[in-house]
Write a structure and sequence with these properties.
The protein is mostly beta strands and 122 residues long. The protein has no helices and eleven strands. Strands 2, 4, 5, 6, 9, 10 and 11 form a seven-stranded mixed β-sheet that branches. A four-stranded antiparallel β-sheet has the order 1-3-8-7, with no helix packed on it. The radius of gyration is 13 Å and the shape is globular.
Length: 122
């Protein structure tokens, strides 16, 4: 059973930066796809960024050029560097992991963290 622990959320002014981190534990050795999803107030949870074990990345259009995802396959961590934050980036950010080989998205039945709040003030 994979457990995910997130850190790094908070309150920041528009134009500022935050870094989110997530550590996976539970003894699994094949964390194929790791990433971050966001749920804004009144909206459904959606993709922010994912990275597979080989380093292939996928970003939401709204964060391209501002956010950077990275991971450490030895430490089983995934991070999200968020620069030039906008009020529209406000929401709860969830770390998520899929152990399904060759998966290209993370589904509700995969593994999810509890979420960390990011609030960007204008």
């Amino acid at each position: 059973q994979v457990q995910l622990e997130e850190s790094g959320g908070g309150l920041v002014q528009a134009g500022g930066s935050l870094r989110l981190s997530c550590t996976a534990s539970g003894g699994l050795t094949n964390l194929y796809l790791m990433g971050w999803y966001r749920q804004a107030p009144g909206e459904q949870r959606g993709l922010v960024a994912t990275m597979d074990r080989g380093g292939w990345t996928r970003y939401a259009d709204s964060v391209k050029g501002r956010f950077t995802i990275s991971r450490d396959n030895v430490k089983n961590t995934v991070s999200l560097q968020m620069n030039n934050l906008e009020p529209e980036d406000t929401g709860v950010y969830y770390c998520a992991v899929s152990i399904r080989p060759f998966s290209t998205d993370i589904r509700p039945r995969d593994y999810w963290g509890q979420g960390t709040q990011v609030t960007v003030s204008s």
